[in-house]
């Protein structure tokens, strides 16, 4: 990520909000992705954070007319219940539904609007700050079902801009906008940068299963896009640190490496049996190093092969979630294992690991749309 460029952040899979077990995907895009074409008095380009649940649509652009529903303004309920439809008549511009932020998942709003025929959704922020606060509701199996079926684009817009749109709509004006990904990509070569927050933990029940499925399903497209130069992705792994007073406790010892600096929760929530959080941190670190080494050789997409092969060949269930099995995968992919070991450093050393340190720093900027 470069300085001086404003970024918008999108999360895929924000349903699995428990940070350690979630996959979060951020697309780094520039400002000015939403243009108001008419009316004249609010014409111009506005900041927005384009959200897209599923595979992002690169290099596209979509014109539409903004509608602000009279009821169900937060979009948390089915629009059918209010007899509202956003289907545009043939020949008419597609409908962009403006909904207010709050009360339910961002994705549920988009899903409800999509079902009512919307072509895109604009979510009006309800606070004036730029930053969005983090929240962590319980993951919920029912929402996982619809998220994969969301096909329409969505964007979070600033409160002040939303108010201008509402005013124009309520005064009966035709508000035409254009959501443009071509303008939003940060590079003139149309390349989208995105970040994927993930974990190698494969034994946390539903969340881990969803995460693995997501990675598996997205792999093909991700590799094609990466090889084609359309994207530049960076995988990330979340760790936390043990408070200094506890670094010698049993809990920290089993969950952390580098003397309490980098920890992950115990996969089975049982400190005495099976794998420890420490094992997860080490494998996460290995995967980060696989990415670094693969990226240095200009083949970042090999990371996807590694993580999916590792999932298949080295599951915790079969007691193969270990270095030996990982080394087999590394070898089969022709990656330089010495370079990877060097990158991983010594997990027992009482010092910072530069790779994980960087991850913890990046983590500080994580926030979630809700
Ligand atoms: C999502 O799409 C699939 C395939 O079209 C369908 O079988 C499934 O019922 C859909 N899920 C929801 C929640 O609509
Ligand atoms: C991956 O490589 C590209 C250049 O090939 C570089 O710009 C990027 O920063 C690298 N990413 C990481 C995380 O090292």
UniProtKB/TrEMBL annotation:
Recorded hits in InterPro entries, A to Z, give: PA_dom_sf, PA_domain, VSR_TRX
Subcellular localization, per the record? Endomembrane system
**What main location does UniProt list?**
membrane
Which CDD domains does this UniProt record tie to the protein? Answer: PA_VSR
Which interval of the chain is the signal sequence? 1-25
**Which key words are in the record?**
Calcium, EGF-like domain, Glycoprotein, Membrane, Receptor, Repeat, Signal, Transmembrane, Transmembrane helix
Could you tell me which residue ranges the PA domain spans?
Answer: 64-165
Its Gene Ontology cellular component terms are: endomembrane system
**According to Swiss-Prot or TrEMBL, what is its membrane topology?**
Single-pass type I membrane protein
Where the record annotates domain Vacuolar sorting receptor thioredoxin-like, the positions are 192-364
What name goes with this protein?
A: Vacuolar-sorting receptor 1
Which species expresses this protein natively? Answer: Capsicum annuum
